[in-house]
Amino acid sequence: MIEIDAQRLLGRIRELGAVGRDGEGRLIRLAASDTDRQGRDLFVGWLRQAGIDVAIDRVGNIFGIWQSPENAGQAPLLIGSHIDTVIDAGIYDGCYGVLAGLEVIETLKASGFLPSRPVAVAAFTNEEGVRYTPDMMGSLAHAGGVSAETVLAAVGTDGSVLRQELARIGYAGDREPGFLRPHAYLELHIEQGPVLEGEGLPIGAVENLQGISWQRVTIDGVANHAGTTPMSMRSDAGHAAARVITFLLDRTKASNAPTVATVGTIRFEPNAINVIPSRAVFTIDLRDPDEQRLQAEEAELAAYLEQLAAAEKVTISVEQLARFEPVIFDLRIVERIEAAARARGLGVKRMTSGAGHDAQMMARIAPAAMIFVPSAGGISHNPREHTEDGELVAGANILLDVAAQLAK
Ligand code: HGY
Ligand code: MN
Ligand code: MN
User: Fold this and answer.
1) How confident is the prediction for the chain on average, in pLDDT?
2) What share of the chain is helix, strand, coil (3-state, %, to 5)?
3) What is the mean predicted confidence (pLDDT) over 319-334?
4) How far, in Å, from the CA of 259 to the mean position of ligand 1?
5) pLDDT in the model for residue 86
6) Does the pTM of the predicted model rise above 0.85?
7) What is the dihedral of CA 9, 50, 57, 369, to 10 degrees?
8) Which of 32, 74, 301, 379 has the fewest Cβ atoms within 10 angstroms?
Protein backbone atom coordinates (compact mmCIF):
# COMPACT_ATOMS: atom_id res chain seq x y z
CA MET A 1 0.00 0.00 0.00
CA ILE A 2 1.40 3.42 -0.89
CA GLU A 3 1.56 6.00 1.88
CA ILE A 4 1.44 9.77 1.85
CA ASP A 5 4.60 11.75 2.64
CA ALA A 6 3.87 12.38 6.30
CA GLN A 7 6.57 14.98 6.89
CA ARG A 8 5.53 17.01 3.84
CA LEU A 9 1.89 17.06 4.96
CA LEU A 10 2.62 17.78 8.63
CA GLY A 11 5.15 20.46 7.70
CA ARG A 12 2.65 22.23 5.44
CA ILE A 13 -0.11 22.10 8.07
CA ARG A 14 2.23 23.84 10.49
CA GLU A 15 3.54 26.30 7.89
CA LEU A 16 0.01 27.32 6.86
CA GLY A 17 -0.97 27.40 10.53
CA ALA A 18 1.68 30.06 11.13
CA VAL A 19 0.21 32.38 8.47
CA GLY A 20 -2.24 35.06 9.58
CA ARG A 21 -1.37 35.50 13.25
CA ASP A 22 -2.29 38.84 14.87
CA GLY A 23 -0.25 40.80 17.42
CA GLU A 24 -1.44 38.47 20.19
CA GLY A 25 -0.55 35.38 18.18
CA ARG A 26 -4.17 34.55 17.41
CA LEU A 27 -4.80 32.78 14.07
CA ILE A 28 -7.31 34.84 12.09
CA ARG A 29 -7.73 34.36 8.32
CA LEU A 30 -11.25 35.64 7.68
CA ALA A 31 -12.54 35.25 4.13
CA ALA A 32 -10.94 37.61 1.58
CA SER A 33 -8.86 39.41 4.21
CA ASP A 34 -5.15 40.17 3.83
CA THR A 35 -4.28 37.17 5.99
CA ASP A 36 -6.58 34.97 3.89
CA ARG A 37 -4.60 36.17 0.87
CA GLN A 38 -1.37 35.10 2.54
CA GLY A 39 -2.77 31.63 3.17
CA ARG A 40 -4.13 31.43 -0.38
CA ASP A 41 -0.79 32.51 -1.88
CA LEU A 42 1.04 29.83 0.10
CA PHE A 43 -1.40 27.14 -1.03
CA VAL A 44 -1.30 28.24 -4.70
CA GLY A 45 2.50 28.18 -4.53
CA TRP A 46 2.36 24.54 -3.42
CA LEU A 47 -0.08 23.74 -6.24
CA ARG A 48 2.31 25.21 -8.79
CA GLN A 49 5.27 23.35 -7.24
CA ALA A 50 3.25 20.15 -7.64
CA GLY A 51 3.02 20.91 -11.37
CA ILE A 52 -0.77 20.84 -11.53
CA ASP A 53 -3.15 23.30 -13.20
CA VAL A 54 -4.49 26.14 -11.03
CA ALA A 55 -7.97 27.54 -11.66
CA ILE A 56 -9.75 30.24 -9.67
CA ASP A 57 -13.44 31.01 -10.08
CA ARG A 58 -15.33 34.29 -9.76
CA VAL A 59 -16.03 33.82 -6.07
CA GLY A 60 -12.41 32.99 -5.29
CA ASN A 61 -12.66 29.20 -5.03
CA ILE A 62 -9.18 27.80 -5.75
CA PHE A 63 -8.75 24.51 -7.64
CA GLY A 64 -5.61 22.48 -8.28
CA ILE A 65 -6.31 20.04 -11.12
CA TRP A 66 -4.11 17.04 -11.96
CA GLN A 67 -5.14 15.97 -15.45
CA SER A 68 -3.62 14.37 -18.53
CA PRO A 69 -4.56 14.58 -22.21
CA GLU A 70 -5.92 11.05 -21.86
CA ASN A 71 -8.33 11.78 -19.01
CA ALA A 72 -9.04 15.52 -19.28
CA GLY A 73 -12.51 14.92 -20.73
CA GLN A 74 -13.67 12.87 -17.75
CA ALA A 75 -15.49 14.25 -14.71
CA PRO A 76 -12.83 14.74 -12.01
CA LEU A 77 -12.62 13.32 -8.54
CA LEU A 78 -12.70 16.41 -6.30
CA ILE A 79 -11.14 16.53 -2.83
CA GLY A 80 -11.81 19.74 -0.93
CA SER A 81 -12.27 21.82 2.17
CA HIS A 82 -11.32 25.37 3.17
CA ILE A 83 -8.38 27.43 4.43
CA ASP A 84 -10.26 30.42 5.82
CA THR A 85 -10.59 30.36 9.61
CA VAL A 86 -12.70 31.64 12.48
CA ILE A 87 -11.31 34.17 14.98
CA ASP A 88 -8.51 32.74 17.18
CA ALA A 89 -8.68 29.45 15.33
CA GLY A 90 -6.86 26.17 15.47
CA ILE A 91 -4.55 25.12 12.63
CA TYR A 92 -6.40 21.99 11.44
CA ASP A 93 -10.02 23.05 10.71
CA GLY A 94 -10.32 22.97 6.90
CA CYS A 95 -6.60 23.32 6.23
CA TYR A 96 -5.96 19.67 7.04
CA GLY A 97 -8.39 18.50 4.36
CA VAL A 98 -7.13 20.87 1.69
CA LEU A 99 -3.46 20.02 2.28
CA ALA A 100 -4.24 16.29 2.52
CA GLY A 101 -6.00 16.56 -0.83
CA LEU A 102 -2.89 18.09 -2.38
CA GLU A 103 -0.76 15.47 -0.61
CA VAL A 104 -2.88 12.66 -2.13
CA ILE A 105 -2.43 14.12 -5.64
CA GLU A 106 1.34 14.47 -5.20
CA THR A 107 1.64 10.95 -3.78
CA LEU A 108 -0.42 9.36 -6.57
CA LYS A 109 1.47 11.36 -9.19
CA ALA A 110 4.87 10.30 -7.83
CA SER A 111 3.80 6.65 -7.56
CA GLY A 112 3.13 6.44 -11.30
CA PHE A 113 -0.59 5.90 -10.66
CA LEU A 114 -2.59 6.63 -13.84
CA PRO A 115 -6.07 7.86 -12.96
CA SER A 116 -8.82 7.42 -15.52
CA ARG A 117 -10.13 10.86 -14.57
CA PRO A 118 -8.59 14.13 -13.37
CA VAL A 119 -8.07 14.45 -9.62
CA ALA A 120 -8.58 17.95 -8.23
CA VAL A 121 -8.23 19.66 -4.87
CA ALA A 122 -10.32 22.69 -3.87
CA ALA A 123 -10.00 25.40 -1.24
CA PHE A 124 -13.48 26.93 -1.09
CA THR A 125 -14.06 30.59 -0.28
CA ASN A 126 -15.60 31.59 3.06
CA GLU A 127 -16.52 28.22 4.51
CA GLU A 128 -16.61 29.69 8.02
CA GLY A 129 -19.11 32.46 7.37
CA VAL A 130 -17.64 34.67 10.12
CA ARG A 131 -17.11 37.80 7.97
CA TYR A 132 -19.74 37.15 5.27
CA THR A 133 -22.84 34.97 5.56
CA PRO A 134 -23.92 32.34 4.78
CA ASP A 135 -21.15 29.92 5.65
CA MET A 136 -20.02 27.33 3.08
CA MET A 137 -20.50 30.22 0.63
CA GLY A 138 -17.95 29.26 -2.03
CA SER A 139 -19.03 25.62 -2.20
CA LEU A 140 -22.71 26.67 -2.18
CA ALA A 141 -21.99 28.81 -5.25
CA HIS A 142 -20.07 25.96 -6.87
CA ALA A 143 -23.06 23.68 -6.28
CA GLY A 144 -25.40 26.22 -7.84
CA GLY A 145 -27.18 27.01 -4.56
CA VAL A 146 -26.52 30.75 -4.87
CA SER A 147 -25.50 32.93 -7.82
CA ALA A 148 -22.01 34.36 -8.12
CA GLU A 149 -23.58 37.83 -8.25
CA THR A 150 -25.34 37.31 -4.92
CA VAL A 151 -22.13 36.02 -3.32
CA LEU A 152 -20.05 38.90 -4.69
CA ALA A 153 -22.57 41.43 -3.37
CA ALA A 154 -22.30 40.04 0.18
CA VAL A 155 -21.61 42.75 2.78
CA GLY A 156 -19.34 41.74 5.62
CA THR A 157 -19.64 42.37 9.36
CA ASP A 158 -17.01 45.09 8.73
CA GLY A 159 -19.08 46.74 5.96
CA SER A 160 -16.80 45.44 3.21
CA VAL A 161 -18.20 44.01 -0.05
CA LEU A 162 -16.88 40.58 -1.04
CA ARG A 163 -16.50 41.48 -4.73
CA GLN A 164 -14.13 44.32 -3.88
CA GLU A 165 -12.23 42.32 -1.29
CA LEU A 166 -11.62 39.39 -3.66
CA ALA A 167 -10.37 41.83 -6.31
CA ARG A 168 -8.18 43.56 -3.73
CA ILE A 169 -6.48 40.34 -2.63
CA GLY A 170 -6.11 39.12 -6.22
CA TYR A 171 -8.56 36.21 -6.07
CA ALA A 172 -11.42 37.41 -8.26
CA GLY A 173 -10.96 34.56 -10.72
CA ASP A 174 -12.38 34.17 -14.19
CA ARG A 175 -13.92 30.69 -14.06
CA GLU A 176 -17.66 30.35 -13.51
CA PRO A 177 -18.57 28.70 -10.20
CA GLY A 178 -19.54 25.12 -10.98
CA PHE A 179 -17.25 24.90 -14.02
CA LEU A 180 -15.89 21.67 -12.59
CA ARG A 181 -18.59 18.99 -12.32
CA PRO A 182 -17.20 16.30 -9.99
CA HIS A 183 -17.59 12.56 -10.51
CA ALA A 184 -17.44 12.33 -6.71
CA TYR A 185 -16.37 14.52 -3.79
CA LEU A 186 -14.31 13.59 -0.72
CA GLU A 187 -13.52 15.71 2.32
CA LEU A 188 -11.15 14.86 5.14
CA HIS A 189 -11.69 16.92 8.29
CA ILE A 190 -11.05 16.90 12.01
CA GLU A 191 -14.19 15.80 13.87
CA GLN A 192 -14.32 18.94 16.00
CA GLY A 193 -16.28 16.91 18.54
CA PRO A 194 -15.63 14.33 21.30
CA VAL A 195 -16.95 11.10 19.75
CA LEU A 196 -13.88 9.46 18.14
CA GLU A 197 -11.56 10.33 21.01
CA GLY A 198 -14.18 9.13 23.50
CA GLU A 199 -14.43 5.75 21.77
CA GLY A 200 -10.70 5.48 21.04
CA LEU A 201 -11.30 5.31 17.27
CA PRO A 202 -8.94 6.85 14.69
CA ILE A 203 -11.38 7.15 11.75
CA GLY A 204 -14.96 8.36 11.29
CA ALA A 205 -16.97 7.53 8.15
CA VAL A 206 -19.38 10.45 8.06
CA GLU A 207 -22.79 9.35 6.79
CA ASN A 208 -24.82 12.51 7.43
CA LEU A 209 -24.57 16.14 8.50
CA GLN A 210 -27.05 18.11 10.60
CA GLY A 211 -29.26 20.98 9.48
CA ILE A 212 -28.16 24.56 10.24
CA SER A 213 -30.23 27.70 10.89
CA TRP A 214 -28.46 31.05 11.39
CA GLN A 215 -30.55 34.10 12.35
CA ARG A 216 -29.74 37.69 13.31
CA VAL A 217 -32.19 39.14 15.86
CA THR A 218 -32.56 42.90 16.27
CA ILE A 219 -34.48 44.14 19.31
CA ASP A 220 -35.41 47.83 19.46
CA GLY A 221 -36.39 49.44 22.76
CA VAL A 222 -35.97 52.98 24.10
CA ALA A 223 -32.73 54.45 25.42
CA ASN A 224 -33.27 56.07 28.79
CA HIS A 225 -31.50 57.09 31.96
CA ALA A 226 -30.30 54.12 34.05
CA GLY A 227 -30.92 56.04 37.28
CA THR A 228 -34.14 57.94 36.79
CA THR A 229 -36.26 55.47 34.78
CA PRO A 230 -38.51 53.26 36.93
CA MET A 231 -38.29 49.56 35.99
CA SER A 232 -41.99 49.58 34.99
CA MET A 233 -41.39 52.35 32.45
CA ARG A 234 -38.54 50.72 30.53
CA SER A 235 -38.39 49.29 27.01
CA ASP A 236 -35.07 47.62 27.66
CA ALA A 237 -33.64 45.92 24.54
CA GLY A 238 -30.85 44.44 26.64
CA HIS A 239 -33.18 42.69 29.07
CA ALA A 240 -35.30 41.38 26.19
CA ALA A 241 -32.19 39.97 24.52
CA ALA A 242 -31.14 38.28 27.75
CA ARG A 243 -34.59 36.68 28.03
CA VAL A 244 -34.39 35.30 24.48
CA ILE A 245 -30.94 33.83 25.08
CA THR A 246 -32.02 32.29 28.37
CA PHE A 247 -35.22 30.91 26.83
CA LEU A 248 -33.34 29.32 23.96
CA LEU A 249 -30.40 27.84 25.86
CA ASP A 250 -32.42 26.64 28.84
CA ARG A 251 -34.83 24.97 26.42
CA THR A 252 -32.16 23.14 24.43
CA LYS A 253 -30.22 22.17 27.57
CA ALA A 254 -33.39 20.71 29.11
CA SER A 255 -34.27 18.80 25.94
CA ASN A 256 -32.97 15.26 25.39
CA ALA A 257 -33.01 15.87 21.63
CA PRO A 258 -29.61 16.50 19.96
CA THR A 259 -30.64 20.07 19.07
CA VAL A 260 -27.87 22.61 19.77
CA ALA A 261 -28.24 26.38 20.11
CA THR A 262 -25.52 29.03 20.29
CA VAL A 263 -25.56 32.81 20.66
CA GLY A 264 -22.05 33.66 19.54
CA THR A 265 -22.30 37.42 18.91
CA ILE A 266 -24.16 40.24 20.66
CA ARG A 267 -23.93 44.02 20.73
CA PHE A 268 -25.90 46.79 22.46
CA GLU A 269 -26.53 50.36 21.36
CA PRO A 270 -25.56 52.91 22.54
CA ASN A 271 -23.49 50.50 24.71
CA ALA A 272 -23.02 52.91 27.63
CA ILE A 273 -22.92 51.89 31.28
CA ASN A 274 -25.68 54.28 32.37
CA VAL A 275 -28.02 54.09 29.34
CA ILE A 276 -30.81 51.55 29.02
CA PRO A 277 -30.01 49.81 25.70
CA SER A 278 -32.14 51.08 22.84
CA ARG A 279 -31.02 48.21 20.61
CA ALA A 280 -29.65 44.72 20.96
CA VAL A 281 -28.37 42.75 17.94
CA PHE A 282 -27.36 39.11 18.33
CA THR A 283 -27.04 35.93 16.27
CA ILE A 284 -28.60 32.52 16.85
CA ASP A 285 -27.03 29.31 15.50
CA LEU A 286 -29.55 26.43 15.77
CA ARG A 287 -28.73 22.91 14.52
CA ASP A 288 -30.39 19.51 14.46
CA PRO A 289 -29.91 16.33 12.40
CA ASP A 290 -33.69 16.14 11.97
CA GLU A 291 -35.32 18.72 9.68
CA GLN A 292 -38.77 18.51 11.31
CA ARG A 293 -37.34 19.06 14.79
CA LEU A 294 -35.22 21.97 13.51
CA GLN A 295 -38.32 23.58 12.02
CA ALA A 296 -40.19 23.03 15.28
CA GLU A 297 -37.40 24.75 17.23
CA GLU A 298 -37.46 27.68 14.81
CA ALA A 299 -41.22 27.94 15.27
CA GLU A 300 -40.94 27.85 19.08
CA LEU A 301 -38.39 30.64 18.94
CA ALA A 302 -40.56 32.76 16.62
CA ALA A 303 -43.57 32.34 18.94
CA TYR A 304 -41.48 33.30 21.95
CA LEU A 305 -40.17 36.44 20.23
CA GLU A 306 -43.73 37.51 19.40
CA GLN A 307 -45.01 37.32 22.95
CA LEU A 308 -41.81 38.80 24.37
CA ALA A 309 -42.10 41.92 22.17
CA ALA A 310 -45.47 42.70 23.75
CA ALA A 311 -44.34 41.86 27.28
CA GLU A 312 -41.18 43.98 27.08
CA LYS A 313 -42.70 46.78 24.93
CA VAL A 314 -39.97 46.34 22.29
CA THR A 315 -39.99 45.57 18.56
CA ILE A 316 -38.16 42.50 17.32
CA SER A 317 -37.02 41.76 13.76
CA VAL A 318 -35.27 38.61 12.52
CA GLU A 319 -33.03 38.13 9.47
CA GLN A 320 -32.25 34.58 8.24
CA LEU A 321 -28.51 34.45 7.55
CA ALA A 322 -28.18 30.81 6.58
CA ARG A 323 -30.51 27.80 6.39
CA PHE A 324 -29.34 24.40 5.22
CA GLU A 325 -31.28 21.16 5.61
CA PRO A 326 -29.60 18.00 6.95
CA VAL A 327 -27.62 16.05 4.33
CA ILE A 328 -27.23 12.29 3.82
CA PHE A 329 -23.88 11.33 2.24
CA ASP A 330 -23.32 8.67 -0.42
CA LEU A 331 -23.51 5.22 1.22
CA ARG A 332 -21.20 3.58 -1.34
CA ILE A 333 -18.44 6.06 -0.53
CA VAL A 334 -19.09 5.70 3.21
CA GLU A 335 -18.64 1.94 2.79
CA ARG A 336 -15.38 2.50 0.87
CA ILE A 337 -14.10 4.63 3.75
CA GLU A 338 -14.98 1.90 6.26
CA ALA A 339 -13.34 -0.80 4.13
CA ALA A 340 -10.21 1.30 3.60
CA ALA A 341 -9.88 1.85 7.35
CA ARG A 342 -10.30 -1.85 8.10
CA ALA A 343 -7.78 -2.76 5.38
CA ARG A 344 -5.23 -0.64 7.25
CA GLY A 345 -6.26 -2.15 10.59
CA LEU A 346 -7.86 1.09 11.77
CA GLY A 347 -11.00 1.23 13.89
CA VAL A 348 -13.82 3.13 12.21
CA LYS A 349 -17.40 4.10 12.93
CA ARG A 350 -20.21 5.79 11.01
CA MET A 351 -21.15 9.12 12.42
CA THR A 352 -23.02 12.40 12.00
CA SER A 353 -21.22 15.69 11.46
CA GLY A 354 -22.26 18.34 13.97
CA ALA A 355 -20.34 20.98 12.03
CA GLY A 356 -21.16 22.35 8.61
CA HIS A 357 -18.79 21.48 5.79
CA ASP A 358 -18.30 22.14 2.09
CA ALA A 359 -19.22 18.47 1.55
CA GLN A 360 -22.83 19.26 2.40
CA MET A 361 -22.94 21.60 -0.59
CA MET A 362 -21.05 19.30 -2.94
CA ALA A 363 -23.50 16.50 -2.06
CA ARG A 364 -26.05 18.48 -4.09
CA ILE A 365 -24.14 17.85 -7.34
CA ALA A 366 -22.11 14.68 -6.78
CA PRO A 367 -21.85 11.59 -4.57
CA ALA A 368 -20.00 12.87 -1.50
CA ALA A 369 -18.78 11.69 1.88
CA MET A 370 -16.36 12.71 4.62
CA ILE A 371 -13.59 11.16 6.66
CA PHE A 372 -13.08 12.33 10.26
CA VAL A 373 -10.09 12.04 12.53
CA PRO A 374 -10.22 12.65 16.31
CA SER A 375 -10.11 16.07 17.96
CA ALA A 376 -8.36 16.17 21.32
CA GLY A 377 -10.96 16.94 23.98
CA GLY A 378 -13.46 17.53 21.17
CA ILE A 379 -12.14 21.09 21.03
CA SER A 380 -12.33 23.20 17.85
CA HIS A 381 -12.75 26.84 16.81
CA ASN A 382 -10.19 27.35 19.56
CA PRO A 383 -6.35 27.57 19.46
CA ARG A 384 -6.30 24.43 21.62
CA GLU A 385 -7.65 22.44 18.66
CA HIS A 386 -5.33 19.44 18.29
CA THR A 387 -5.02 16.11 16.48
CA GLU A 388 -2.00 13.80 16.90
CA ASP A 389 0.42 13.53 13.97
CA GLY A 390 -0.21 9.79 13.70
CA GLU A 391 -3.97 10.41 13.50
CA LEU A 392 -3.49 13.09 10.83
CA VAL A 393 -1.33 10.73 8.75
CA ALA A 394 -3.76 7.81 9.19
CA GLY A 395 -6.66 9.94 7.97
CA ALA A 396 -4.69 11.14 4.95
CA ASN A 397 -3.81 7.55 4.03
CA ILE A 398 -7.50 6.59 4.11
CA LEU A 399 -8.20 9.58 1.87
CA LEU A 400 -5.42 8.33 -0.43
CA ASP A 401 -6.88 4.82 -0.63
CA VAL A 402 -10.47 5.92 -1.31
CA ALA A 403 -9.31 8.59 -3.78
CA ALA A 404 -7.28 5.99 -5.73
CA GLN A 405 -10.40 3.79 -5.99
CA LEU A 406 -12.66 6.66 -7.11
CA ALA A 407 -10.06 7.99 -9.57
CA LYS A 408 -10.03 4.76 -11.54
O1 HGY B 1 -20.26 26.56 11.42
C2 HGY B 1 -19.76 25.52 11.03
O3 HGY B 1 -20.21 24.47 11.39
C4 HGY B 1 -18.58 25.54 10.11
O5 HGY B 1 -17.41 25.57 10.90
N6 HGY B 1 -18.62 26.67 9.22
MN1 MN C 1 -14.14 23.35 8.71
MN1 MN D 1 -14.90 25.69 11.20
Assistant:
1) 98
2) 35, 25, 40
3) 98
4) 15
5) 98
6) yes
7) -40
8) 74
Task: Pick the residue whose CA is nearest to atom 2 on ligand 1.
Answer: 356
Range of the domain at 284: 211-324
Q: Please, is 174 exposed, middle or buried when counting C-beta atoms within 10 Å of its C-beta (0-12, 13-18, 19+)?
A: exposed
Q: Which residue ranges have their beta carbon within 6 Å of ligand 1?
A: 127-129, 135, 355-356
Ligand 1: which atom is nearest the Cα of residue 356? 3
Neighbours of ion ligand 2 (CB under 5 A): 93-94
162 lies in some domain = yes
Q: Assess whether 343 and 227 both reside in one domain.
A: no
Nearest CA, atom 1, ligand 1? 356
Residue numbers in the known binding site for Zn(2+) are 82, 93, 128, 189, 381
State the helix-helix crossing angle for 162-169 and 34-49, rounded to 10 degrees: 50
* pLDDT single digits (tens) 189-209: 999 999 999 999 999 999 999
Please indicate, yes or no, whether residues 263 and 135 belong to a single structural domain of this protein.
no
CA of 105 to the centre of ligand 3 (A): 24
Q: Are residues 200 and 341 in the same domain?
A: yes
Whether 42 and 132 map to the same domain: the answer is yes
Q: What is the CATH number of the domain that holds 284?
A: 3.30.70.360
CA distances from 399 to 125, 186, 187 (A): 22, 8, 8
Give the model's pLDDT for residue 406.
98
The predicted pLDDT at position 145 comes to: 98
Q: Are residues 270 and 162 in the same domain?
A: no
Residue that terminates a domain, selected from 300, 324, 348 = 324
